[in-house]
Amino acid sequence: ASTLVVAEQIDGGKLAPVTLNALTAASQLKQDIDCVIFGADKTAETTTQLQKFNNSNIKKIFVAENVAFKGLLSEAVTPVLLDLQKKNNYTHILGGSSTFTKSILPRLAALLDVQPISDITKVVDKDQFIRFVYAGNAVLKLKSNDTVKIITVRGTAFEATKEGGGSGQANVEKLDSSVKNDLSEFVERQIQQSERPELPSARIIFSGGRALKSKENFKLLYDLADLFPGQATVGASRAAVDAGYCTNDLQIGQTGKIVAPDLYVAIGISGAIQHIAGMKDSKVIVAINKDGDAPIFAIADYGLVGDLFKVIPELNEKLKKK
Amino acid sequence: MAIRILVGVKRAIDYAVKVQVKTDKTGVVTEGVKHSMNPFDEIAVEEAIRLKEKKVAQEIIAVSCGPTQCQETLRTALALGADRAIHVEINGKDYETLQPLAISKLIAAVAKKESVDLVLLGKQAIDDDCNQTGQMVAGLLSWPQALFASKVDIKDKKAEVMREIDGGSETIRVKLPAVITTDLRLNQPRFANLPSIQKAKKKPMAKMSPSDLGVDIKPHQEYLSYEEPPKRQGGGRVSSVDELISKLKEKGLV
Q1: Are residues A198 and B167, on separate chains, in Cβ contact within 8 Å?
Q2: CATH for B3-250 (3.40.50.150, 3.40.50.880, 3.40.50.720, 3.40.50.620)
Q3: Which of A74, A91, A113, B204 has its CA 20 to 30 A from that of B221?
Q4: Which intervals hold domain Electron transfer flavoprotein alpha/beta-subunit N-terminal (chain B) (predicted)?
Q5: What is the interface pTM, i.e. ipTM, of the complex?
Q6: pLDDT by residue (tens digit) across A225-257?
Q7: Per-residue model confidence (pLDDT) at position A166
């Protein structure tokens, strides 16, 4: 019995951080791990980064490089994964939850007649897993009877695997990745360039809601984040995104990103169930809101009732002096 | 060469309801609880209607899998602008254990039977939060998939779709027939008005069973228990920015 982890390449050949959370979940299954990496180029760099984690039972890294993998289109990637599964009969196939794995793993599962398991937060044993349903209002324990379990792993629920002191030499094998895909084509990608960390890996998140009132006012949050270079970033509630105050990739909640930073500062966010689903596992939650009855206060460690347009500038000044 | 669209609508507990876990842990309380069309499916219906208004689509078929009450959800889709509906009836124990793989097989079978060019679905349902069905329908049909769409443009038997991804968005082009799943910002769904609700009562609704479609819906997973999530200890207050900063300093956070 062995496990396949679908490692994810992101911009510039980097290994996606969420792959390391998936490796932790995979190592809890206590069996050998193979990994597979897809990319249009720079897969050697991604492989080198992955090899640093060979302490987590990684036996082999399969690498599939082909221009057809540009944009990691599901129609190109899935057939290669299907072949790999048919050859090696893994009992578990895992990926860290991301738009990439959410796209390919259910598609792969359908081809194998498997009911996939989305966004697990706990591995109970080889067949049983825990995941949240109803926006985190219920915790479901399920048992899969499929011969291969196909799983996405919620990154915030598993620590990232740490670099090991091993030799860093898991076997690398190039896959025959001749791909024929005339179903779909990649056109372009618009990635928000930012010096700030990605939401799921930020230590501190300053998150804004509708009460910020405008796109310009969101700058108040960026100013706060910039007091913690490389550690802090900005998030938003769905209401703020819908109002056009910020781009949609900042949305935190049931249908946006799930985060669990050390410090989450909810500013002008009332605390709809759907938002709380995306941030309630943060280690410390601060709520700043004019309305002292806002539901966000019920889950906040430190609630401060006040006008954010007074509180935020004061907070900024005083944090700067510190 | 206008296209035919199959749009999936799921009946789910209304998004505004505070969901309660049953005391015997076998599920969540659904009796006497308001149900509505899954919000992402409303967006799918809206997009289908807009494609018809633009004369890109000629016919919209709505499909829902589940008990009799699903017909209400289908009537809503008809009132909004779908032309006809298909109710795949599944009741009792079969419905309780109905899983996305089985639903995907049913939708794929209907798509084939009706020879549609496009299946439009919500990206996820707000009850099981699985985010799987569109991908699986596409896989089963060997069709391309354009997921998490925030913009759809169809011409020359191709769909150009802007999709929301981690860190931004991207544009892909897929050949029809295809599956598209909707994200929140694709459109703003309309409400049905009274005359169209009346008119919807006369629109055709076909009923069929999984066996009519040749689909085996047996579950692949057992749901062992539902628990309340751990309660977060909150409610702490500070009275000033200074107090907040000193608390955060104590914890080594700032």
Answers
A1: yes
A2: 3.40.50.620
A3: A74
A4: 25-217
A5: 0.96
A6: 999 999 999 999 999 999 999 988 899 998 889
A7: 59
